[in-house]
Design brief:
- The chain has one domain (about 5-180): 3-Layer(aba) Sandwich (Rossmann fold), CATH 3.40.50.
- The strands form 2 sheets. It has a 3-stranded parallel beta sheet, sandwiched between helices.
- Helix 1 (about 5-20) crosses helix 7 (about 125-140) and helix 4 crosses helix 8.
- The protein is about 55% helix and about 10% strand.
- It has 9 helices and 5 strands; from the N terminus they run αβαβαβαβααβααα.
- The chain is an alpha/beta fold.
């Protein structure tokens, strides 16, 4: 739980989610101030549940049982969280940055019309933009046909290492051949 992961803007944007009937389950640890702030939110709002700590098995259960996963990171070279979300059909809502932008196809009008959207992106990385994206997320969730299509797209996304591993193996093989006299 750090500012780099955008948890501070999530705190600010959280009322937009809760006011529209959304809920938040949060698992993690880090900045003590953020931990305390989320725990206070959980005490005040029945739609917020917080568990401080690290528990990989529980994290996978949360992802598998959730409807969406929020990844409002300010920067993210790649990120695994959104990839887990895609695999589970838990639609990622991500900041438009780094690997998050590369792996999630935005539910823009064009992405929806093409039938290829796998989640939502937002930019700039501000509380206001995140709140607007969460409202879009709730609107999409209410359209069960679109939501189901996006879940299907997400689960069909090529997120395994099979393709990348083959490319790396070929690169290493070429490098070895180049060094051999």
């Amino acid at each position: 739980m750090t500012e780099q992961k955008g948890l501070d803007i999530l705190l600010q944007a959280l009322p937009a989610l809760l006011d529209r009937g959304g809920q938040l389950a949060l698992l993690g640890s880090g900045n003590p101030g953020l931990e305390e702030a989320f725990q206070r939110k959980a005490q005040k709002h029945p739609g917020v549940a917080v568990r401080i700590g690290y528990d990989e098995e529980f994290a996978h259960r949360l992802m598998a049982g959730g409807d969406a996963i929020l990844v409002p990171s300010r920067f993210e070279p790649c990120g695994l969280t959104q990839l887990y979300g895609l695999r589970y059909g838990t639609l990622p809502l991500v900041a438009l940055t780094g690997g998050l932008a590369d792996t999630v196809i935005n539910a823009s009008p064009a992405g929806l019309a093409a039938g290829c959207a796998t989640g939502l992106q937002f930019h700039p990385v501000t509380a206001q933009a995140l709140a607007q994206a969460m409202m879009r997320l709730i609107t999409l969730y209410q359209d069960k046909e679109t939501w189901t299509r996006m879940m299907t797209n997400a689960m069909a996304s090529p997120v395994s290492w099979t393709h990348s591993a083959a490319k790396y193996a070929a690169l290493y093989e070429d490098m070895v051949k180049a060094k051999t006299p």
